Amino acid sequence: MKIDFDEQPEPITPAIGSGPRISPNTARTGALPPLEDEMGPYEDPDFADMIETPVSDIKPIKPSARAEAEKQPVFEFLRPSNFRLPELSILAKPKPRNHSFDEDSLRQNARMLESVLAEFGVRGVIDQIRPGPVVTLYELAPAAGVKGARVVALADDIARNMSARSCRVSIVQGRNAIGIELPNQVRETVYLRDMLASAEFEKAGHSLPMVLGETIGGDPYVTDLAKMPHLLIAGTTGSGKSVGVNAMILSILYRLDPEQCKFIMIDPKMLELSVYDGIPHLLAPVVTDPKKAVVALKWTVKEMEDRYRRMSKVGVRNISNFNERARATAAEGKNFVRKVQTGFDETGQPIYEFDEMVPEPMPYIVVIIDEVADLMMVAGKDIEGAVQRLAQMARAAGIHLIMATQRPSVDVITGTIKANFPTRISFQVTSKIDSRTILGEQGAEQLLGQGDMLYMAGGGRITRLHGPFVSDEEVEAVAQYLRDQGSPQYLEDVTYGGDEESGSEGGAGEGGGSGDDLYDKAVYFVTFDRKASTSYIQRKLQIGYNRAASLMEKMEMEGVVGPANHVGKRDILVGPPPGH
Q1: 12, 109, 134, 132: which is closest to 449 by C-alpha?
Q2: Which helix H or strand E contains 322, and what residues bound it?
Q3: Nearest CA among 360, 402, 419, 438 for reference residue 226
Q4: Pairing assessment for the beta strands 399-405 and 364-369 based on DSSP bridges
Q5: pLDDT of residue 52
Q6: CA-based diameter of the chain, in Å?
Q7: For the whole model, what pTM was predicted?
Q8: Distance CA 310, CA 300 (A)
Q9: pLDDT reported for residue 76
Q10: What pLDDT score does 377 carry?
Q11: Which pLDDT value is given to residue 367?
């Protein structure tokens, strides 16, 4: 049967709030004419039976006790400590949201969607509808013999026939259903303040709680970075990636003080994370130099190893157990004491000594790298090696990574990095290839941008979320509030302590070693092998062209090699190294 769309009412997708789940059987009130004979007779369910939650029962997000308490005046002498966590009032008050939907629009859209699928030979019934703030999910129960891959391949055709901006089709895991997600005509904004004020965020007993956004059904989604234990984020320009990273950072800052959590922020673009410079949670100023970024990551590896040694002395297996024992021991006014065998006496009996350690709880450390692609271009081997070690071992030591990139290509997100980052988030990307690179399947190219994301947990299950919005002014206000609480206690070793080591470990990439060390190596290779060319230095030292050209110019200035002739060759003016 062909449907005359000129006689059909214009499909209207409602502005949907944090809506209810609408089920079963289909979104229609009247009888649908029978389809073609090969599809069999069609039974028409009652649309009124679809609504599990009446419209009058749909309520906004339940506020937390903290949000209610902030409405009351708090006297300074009642504060439990000198450091005060940021207040929700710092964030802008969001506009009221419309928690209702149009039943007629849902009926028309579901009816039209079934007709569109029938035109492409897909038989099935939409037995559940889940309206949300940004998209509405229509769950299709396919008839026997309908392949899910065929429906997934029809995403672009469904969007065209439904006059929608995009359409994402995915298999609903654990059920005989196919999810078809269509954007709402009027999109609602999800605000970070609503998420932080929700009871879900307050009651979440997470070590490093992060608000990712709202589900399709409008429920706040709160997760724990400590259980991920690392996060890889990808998204093109305008996808909302930077706003999403800010929301994750603020989620932690609203929950943990500087004694509980520290940050190392690496921002090669020099713009995204510089707003946090000077907050007391930082271990070092925001790192913008790729050379210092390598040093900071190597310092983090050393800190991880040192934490493992401390936990081994106490006899615990992770940071939470270490901190619990440290607080209990400190409350008793004692130190950690360990009996260590140091040797044997003249009679062959073992000699023991007692090793004491002050019980100091260790804070969590969150390392945020805003643009991995730039660092991989400058110092790929050093970055990948340090990231691999941290991703494999740092979880138990309380060190966690959040890495973001605009270019999720295979040379940036290598197989080694993907294997150690099971938890990933993809905002809107430009192609199906990029979506497969970050998630292992297509779909991220169909997202709407501005915070629309696909979240893949460790088990591989993908959830569509709508990230909260937080403005630059709000981020600056929270950062200034934290700066007013006190100055950060920077550690110079984070960005300056590893220069010598980084130079002696091979110098992979530009900036992989100190200038004097690389120059000495370059002179050695040129004078020993009697080959003077920029490309030769690049191959021997595994550095970039700019660094190799600078070394060649320095050798020319110091009389090691002569100027290039008309064919680019240089004479070597000194003899081979001593002893050769």
Answers
A1: 134
A2: helix 319-331
A3: 402
A4: parallel
A5: 39
A6: 104
A7: 0.71
A8: 15
A9: 36
A10: 84
A11: 97
Q: Are 33 and 111 in contact (CB under 8 A)?
A: no
Q: Cα–Cα distance between 338 and 352 in angstroms, integer?
A: 10
Give the pLDDT of residue 334: 81
Using alpha carbons, list the distances in angstroms from residue 192 to 31, 248, 310, 420.
Answer: 43, 10, 38, 29
Tell me what pLDDT residue 579 has: 63
Q: What is the DSSP string of 153-184?
A: HTHHHHHHHTT-S--EEEEETTTTEEEEEEE-
Q: Which domains does the chain have, with CATH numbers?
A: 37-58+98-183 (3.30.980.40), 192-288+364-489 (3.40.50.300), 514-557 (1.10.10.10)
- Pairing of β 261-266 and β 350-357: unpaired
pLDDT digits 0-9 by tens, 31-84: 334 434 444 444 444 444 444 333 333 445 666 655 555 554 433 333 335 789
Sign (positive or negative) of CA dihedral 454, 208, 407, 381: negative
Of 178, 215, 196, 26, the residue nearest 103 (C-alpha) = 26
DSSP3 helix / strand / coil % (the chain, rounded to 5): 35, 20, 45
Contact 509, 381 (CB under 8 A): yes
- Low-confidence residues of the chain: pLDDT under 70: 1-81, 99-100, 355, 459, 497-515, 567, 579-580
Query: Residue 96 class from Cβ within 10 Å (0-12 exposed, 13-18 middle, 19+ buried)?
Result: exposed
How do 261-266 and 336-344 pair as beta strands?
unpaired
Query: Which token pair is 15?
Result: 């502005």
Q: Which two tokens stand for residue 255?
A: 């929950």
Encoded tokens for 222: 């709160």
What is the distance between the alpha carbons of residues 49 and 46, in angstroms, rounded to a whole number?
6
Determine the pLDDT at residue 500.
39
Q: Which two tokens stand for residue 343?
A: 């040797």
Cβ-proximal residues to 179 (8 Å cutoff; 6+ apart), any chain = 137, 138, 139, 140, 169, 170, 171, 172
Location of structure tokens 């439990």: 80
Which single residue is written with the structure tokens 């990230």? 467
DSSP code per residue over 280-293? TTBSSSPB--HHHH
Strand partners, 180: 138, 169
CB 109 within 8 A of CB 137: no
| DSSP bridge pairs for 465 | 215, 453
Helix 545-557 vs helix 515-529: crossing angle, to nearest 10: 70
Amino acid 65: pLDDT: 58
Say if residue 35 is exposed, middle or buried (CB neighbours under 10 Å; 0-12, 13-18, 19+).
Answer: middle
**Residue 359, preceding peptide bond in cis (omega within 30° of 0):** no
pLDDT tens digits, 388-442:
899 999 999 999 999 999 888 888 888 878 888 999 999 999 999 999 999 988 8
